[in-house]
Amino acid sequence: MRAILVDWIISVHAKFKLLPETLYLTTNLIDRYFSMFNVQKNEVQLVGVAALLIATKYEEIYPPTVKDFIYLTDNTYSRQQILQMEKNILFNLNFEI
Asked: Which fold does the domain 2-92 belong to in CATH?
């Protein structure tokens, strides 16, 4: 599942023409979160989207909006779900910027 998620993240990364550092940080966040928690199959993409959202906010000058990520996931997740997962990742990984 991780390989499929990272392949999808790479295609999204290319679509938005994001910085390489954004991809590296996203993958790092995903791996750290997966190492700490058992994630259900239906939430794997949610973790990836939230990690990408965090990374774009940190690295990019003009990050994509949450609405862009909702569109990319074909409305699979709501705005609230994405933002809640973002909070979970930041809180559980003790992410300090």
From this structure: Cyclin A; domain 1 (1.10.472)
